[in-house]
Amino acid sequence: MIKHRLWRVLVPAFVAMSGLAAAGAEGTNTVILDTKSFWRFRTVTETPDLLLPSGEIKAVRVNWSKDAGDWLGKNPTQGTLPEDKWTATQAVAVIRLPAETAADWMKPEFDDSSWARLRGPMLDRSFNESWKLVLMRGRFEVPDPAKAGDLNLSLAFKGGAVVYLNGQELTRAFMPKGELNLYTPGEPYPEDVYYTSEGFLMFRKDRSAEAAPRMEKRIRKLTEFKIPAGQLKKGVNILAVANHRTPTMAKDFAGRSKGYNYRHEDVGWSKIGIFEARLVAGPGGDVVPGTAALPGRGFKVWNQSIIQAVFLPDYPDPFSPLSPLRMTGAKNGTFAGQVVVGDEKPLLALKVEAADLKGPVTIPAAAVKIRYGVLDSPGARAGRL
């Protein structure tokens, strides 16, 4: 029997007026989704894999021979160890978190309410190369496909990318041909984005005349891919993007930066990440964007993960129904959920009441404590309760 538990529901109450705007216009075009929009994101981490000289991709460790450092010291013009001075045969355990991701994650009927709701860009800034996948889902509305016109999609990313519209693959970039699975790696990068012309590894912050254009090639692009109006459907449409990590060359771990007799930590860089995503409708296209709160939609309620701060410019997803508030906790613990409300007009005397919480057992309303969010400062987050 589960004992009585106290649950807290955090309800930051404010008006997201600064997020209230019509579609962002670019000349005669309209931005439907972009990097500043809210998307549903999921990241999957996995043990890094290496591209071996044989062309195989494996999760292995690179080991230097005992005399590798001496060899580098005696050969100051060489940036990479010869093949007899390093090996990449020691297998390491492959750990993936979360272990499973639903195969239908890109389809309209998939429930993404448990995914993080964030603005982009989505980048791994730790440089530990542990991210395996970045999955993102965005929504927009088409009142009448016959009046929507064609759309143009542009992406800037590291690794590889596969784009889906309403569950069907639209296009892919820097990915292998043929059948893909969710964990297929992106196409490898060429050596010149790792090394200088002298054969030394580039530092991440190197902005020299030679290094800057080589590093720029690490960011790959899909430019103005045309989505025909005939592929849109009436109502809510789902644009989904899978960003796949590219394996690191094993040779990268057998190299060094100029002036070092070992591989300096500042040469590592992530082979995955979404810098920019942009979906644009042409002149006169009748498409409702998902870039801000929509005028005329009135009072809105949405739930948000308690580990995500709520800010004044935040706005609800105008195209998603309110999903169940899910709270997971241990016996006799105190755990919280977060509900956010907003309107185009100021909210006065807001009052929230809790009913019984129903799941495997029922937690009575008397065990629920409601607390209201208070803005730390104008335009800031609702941090205090």
Explain this structure to me?
The strands form six sheets. Strands 4, 9, 10, 12, 14, 15 and 17 form a seven-stranded antiparallel beta sheet that branches. Mean pLDDT is 87; it is low at 1-25. This protein is globular. The protein has three helices and 25 strands. The longest helix has 7 residues, at 68-74. With 385 residues, the chain is mainly beta. The chain has helices at residues 68-74, 145-148, 211-216; strands at residues 7-12, 24-26, 29-33, 38-46, 50-51, 57-58, 60-64, 86-91, 96-97, 116-119, 122-123, 131-142, 151-158, 160-165, 168-173, 220-227, 235-244, 248-249, 273-281, 300-303, 335-342, 357-358, 362-363, 368-375, 382-384.
CATH superfamily of the largest domain: Galactose-binding domain-like
How much of the residues is beta strand, in percent? 25-35%
Spans where pLDDT lies below 50 across 5 or more residues: 1-25
Question: Which structural class fits the helix and strand makeup?
Answer: mainly beta
Question: How many helices in DSSP terms?
Answer: 3
List its traits.
Jelly Rolls; 7-stranded antiparallel β-sheet; disordered N terminus; 2 domains
Task: Briefly characterize the structure.
Helices cover about 5% and strands about 35% of the residues. It has about 375 residues and is mostly beta strands.
Which SSEs are present, and which pair or pack?
Elements (H helix, E strand, L loop, with lengths): L6 E6 L11 E3 L2 E5 L4 E9 L3 E2 L5 E2 L1 E5 L3 H7 L11 E6 L4 E2 L18 E4 L2 E2 L7 E12 L2 H4 L2 E8 L1 E6 L2 E6 L37 H6 L3 E8 L7 E10 L3 E2 L23 E9 L18 E4 L31 E8 L14 E2 L3 E2 L4 E8 L6 E3 L1
Parallel strand pairs: 1-21, 1-24, 5-18
Antiparallel strand pairs: 2-3, 3-19, 4-9, 4-10, 4-12, 5-6, 7-8, 11-19, 12-17, 13-16, 13-19, 14-15, 14-17, 20-21, 22-23, 24-25
